[in-house]
Amino acid sequence: MATSRITERIGRAVMKAGADKASTWFTPHMVAASRAIFERIPSVDFTLEVRDARIPISSEYEHMRYFPSCRRIIILNKMDLANRSQTQEWIKHFQKQDCICYGINSHNKDNIKELLKFLQAQVREVKFDQSKFTTTMMLVGVPNVGKSALANSLHQIGRISAAEKGKLKHTIVSPEPGETKVITSLKIASHPNIYILDTPGVLLPDSLDIEVGSKLALTGAIKDCLVEECELAQYFLTILNLSDEHKRWETLVSKEDGLSVEHKANLSDSSDSNMKRKKLFYSDHTQDFVVRDVRRTLLQTFLSFKGNLEDVNELVRLIDSQLVALRDAFRVSLESGEDGCQIVATKLLNLYRTGRLGCYTLDTVPRN
Question: Which PANTHER family does the record cross-reference, listed alphabetically (predicted)?
């Protein structure tokens, strides 16, 4: 495959970092957390294994293989960042494997309300007189799959709807992997009482292979400082250039170009006050007008490319030209000594990881 060279470089860097005893991602607290979770899993009523919907297999939690008889529910989180139709295929795939699977966006209140009802229904199925019991559910998963965000959302929705309204608690939520250090208990329902345990993300270095390591790095499960961000950006652009996302962007750009001059002027905020505001924030890559320019730049470089995408060298040539062109789209003004590729890569990865550049599922559903 055309992605193999870039994937191998990233994967080997991740595996090398994991093998290093001084690694900044397999830390002593992660070793301790791994042991604590392993010991506690048999005593909880349900284990909610949270995975990243973009990588449903690559984000598997290895510890669960040692507990085949426990009540496990696979939660595919961040489904708003994954390809919707492929997420549904993955859910069906897990159901065929006799695994209960549920797809969510932990930041969507309606999603969380439906998930809470689903979890309460699961409790009712296994406990005859559930009102007399307290149910404990443990969230487990690799780093940065959204366990803490999910725990907070379930706690907030559950406590608001509960008969007694206690003070809301919160666990730390961060885009950086490895921020959760201890196991935290949060109440998510009453009558019956349901508590959820938020746990630190654990990633076992000896369980990774090159392809899995590269996918975990791209989606943010491993700290960027351990892998070259420019290579991660190249990896994303490889996926983008081999996807159908350009077709959607081509439609969007055509609609923008088809607007009347007057309407287009209003849309691009060309009034004096808005132009001043734009100048103040033009370096903020999350602004809509910057994202539009980034999409347009990537589309134009792709459409003007005449090489063979299946040829690795040709594909790398296209990616290099895109990284250079993106300096203008991101308004990168280089000072002496600054690395243009590094700045562009950081901004590009942020837009990918927040879904501003499309929704991609990196794992492929096995075909029987």
Answer: DAR GTPASE 2, MITOCHONDRIAL, MITOCHONDRIAL RIBOSOME-ASSOCIATED GTPASE 1
